[in-house]
């Protein structure tokens, strides 16, 4: 590589001058801007061709370094042309959003600072305190000073929250689970529904609770937790000498976007001394939309809430958040600072590493700050309201189409529907709907994924992108029907 400082010499790798960096940074900015500008006009997703795939899989360990410019060129050639598809307004798959432009830019700045946001007196740490408070304010959750932290995602936030729940339950039973473990305690029992995300089971397994001690409570036809069934299950387990301690409610299930009735669940949890945890990974921010805000009444009574700014807010991955009602509960679960070394002044919240599992922690707060600051509360609410309105519109279009049918009410911004497969039996209809998502994806014009709900195979379209248009909704259904004709034909 030639640089201004050392014309003609081959400076490989480490000797990056300011001029080298600036040139490559500008090239990166152009590359990323082109990528984002071109996204809507490209196929949503395409399978990678074998050569391109192999080039990545079999990439040899570089013996010598290469100049920055070359790396940027390689990213543009070998990586950016093969995206997952989220980012395109015709991507309706899973729960993966387009990146907020402000968050993309902030990611570069955050990595230039590269702090460990474990604790201390630097900007990233203070900014994380602020954005966690902002997140709590956005979803209407109480925020005692220090009552939460950013995590890699909701899977990790769930582990953090459930660990605090386990600690409290053990303590009430006269045990210090951190020192003594679970041995000797009656089994701790938690309550979920058939719609609860798998990350809750993973957390229960990791925390030594055992997935068998997670009871699956019935749901109503609306996909919401049946409180009468919950009460009966808790009473049965108590009578059997077990220790009910946890209820997991959903602020938007991943299958159909159902929001549990939090008020009655909170009543029961208070009465029975159970920890109420809410999985708001996908749906908690739906509370910003006045049209559906009523569904979330009582969310603020939970003991903990896990949610994902990297979903509906569009903060670039990764960014989850754990919020807790009782800050000391969380600190008591994770802090390894001996109490005699703590600063006990009122403002001393300690380090984030006392509230979760990570020691060295990334500077996630800047991309959250940028994303929220760019749109403001009003802009976020507008975008979210647009998504729920689009979802309801899509529901109407499905209902008006005789080849298709809805399988659940649209409560948030997920539309669960299927192809009727007229003239076929139930098994053939399930087979068709199971095969449909991949067939639609291969066509490249829209991207939708599937799920099983109440025993039926279905398609689920998740609306997270405010740039999606009504024409895109028509295209989605046209593509589903065209793919079905191919599969049935
Ligand atoms: C995405 C999701 C999770 C898991 O969160 P991650 O950020 O992927 O770890 C949990 N619950 C629901 C409802 C989700 O949509």
TrEMBL record:
InterPro entries, per database record: Aromatic_deC, PyrdxlP-dep_de-COase, PyrdxlP-dep_Trfase, PyrdxlP-dep_Trfase_major, PyrdxlP-dep_Trfase_small
Keyword terms: Decarboxylase, Lyase, Pyridoxal phosphate
Top-rank lineage group of the source organism: Bacteria
Cofactor field: pyridoxal 5'-phosphate
Gene3D superfamilies according to UniProt: Aspartate Aminotransferase, domain 1, dopa decarboxylase, N-terminal domain, Type I PLP-dependent aspartate aminotransferase-like (Major domain)
Modified positions (N6-(pyridoxal phosphate)lysine) in chain numbering: 311
SUPFAM superfamilies (UniProt xref): PLP-dependent transferases
Example GO molecular function: aromatic-L-amino-acid decarboxylase activity
KW Protease (keyword) present: no
Short name of any one Pfam family annotated for the protein: Pyridoxal_deC
Gene Ontology biological-process annotations: amino acid metabolic process; carboxylic acid metabolic process
Protein family according to the UniProt entry: Belongs to the group II decarboxylase family.
Protein name, per record: Amino acid decarboxylase
């Amino acid at each position: 590589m030639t640089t201004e400082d050392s014309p003609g010499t081959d400076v490989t790798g480490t000797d990056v001058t300011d001029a080298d960096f600036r040139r490559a940074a500008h090239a990166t900015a152009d590359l990323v801007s082109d990528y984002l500008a071109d996204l809507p006009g490209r196929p949503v997703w395409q399978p990678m061709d074998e050569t391109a795939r192999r080039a990545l899989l079999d990439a040899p360990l570089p013996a010598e370094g290469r100049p920055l410019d070359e790396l940027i060129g390689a990213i543009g050639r070998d990586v950016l042309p093969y995206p997952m598809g989220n980012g395109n307004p015709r991507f309706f798959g899973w729960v993966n959003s387009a990146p907020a432009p402000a968050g993309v830019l902030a990611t570069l700045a955050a990595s230039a600072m590269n702090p460990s946001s474990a604790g201390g007196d630097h900007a990233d740490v203070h900014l994380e305190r602020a954005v966690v408070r902002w997140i709590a304010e956005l979803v209407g959750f109480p925020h005692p000073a220090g009552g939460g932290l950013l995590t890699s995602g909701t899977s990790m936030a769930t582990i953090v929250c459930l660990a605090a729940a386990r600690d409290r339950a053990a303590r009430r039973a006269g045990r210090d689970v951190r020192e003594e473990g679970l041995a000797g305690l009656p089994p701790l029992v938690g309550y979920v529904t058939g719609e609860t995300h798998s990350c809750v089971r993973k957390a229960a397994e990791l925390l030594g609770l055992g997935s068998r001690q997670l009871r699956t409570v019935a749901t109503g036809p609306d996909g919401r937790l049946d409180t009468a069934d919950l009460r009966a299950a808790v009473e049965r387990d108590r009578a059997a000498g077990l220790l009910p301690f946890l209820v997991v409610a959903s602020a938007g299930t991943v299958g159909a976007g159902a929001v549990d009735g939090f008020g009655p669940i909170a009543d029961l949890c208070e009465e029975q001394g159970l920890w109420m945890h809410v999985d708001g990974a996908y749906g908690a921010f739906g509370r910003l939309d006045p049209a559906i805000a009523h569904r979330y009444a009582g969310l603020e009574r939970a003991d903990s809430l896990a949610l994902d700014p990297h979903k509906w807010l569009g903060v670039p991955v990764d960014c989850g958040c754990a919020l807790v009602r009782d800050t000391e509960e969380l600190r008591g679960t994770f802090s390894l600072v001996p109490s005699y070394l703590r600063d006990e002044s009122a403002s001393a919240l300690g380090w984030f590493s006392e509230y979760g599992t990570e020691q060295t922690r990334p500077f996630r707060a800047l991309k959250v700050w940028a994303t929220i600051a760019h749109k403001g509360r009003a802009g976020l609410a507008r975008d979210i309201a647009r998504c729920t309105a689009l979802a309801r519109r899509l529901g109407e279009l499905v209902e008006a189409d005789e080849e298709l049918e809805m399988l659940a009410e649209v409560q948030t911004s997920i539309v669960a529907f299927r192809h009727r497969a007229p003239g076929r039996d139930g098994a053939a209809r399930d087979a068709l709907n199971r095969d449909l998502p991949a067939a639609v994806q291969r066509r490249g014009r829209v991207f939708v994924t599937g799920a099983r709900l109440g025993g039926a195979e279905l398609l689920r379209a998740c609306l997270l992108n405010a740039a999606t248009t009504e024409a895109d909704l028509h295209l989605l259904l046209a593509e589903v029907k065209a793919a079905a004709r191919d599969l049935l034909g």
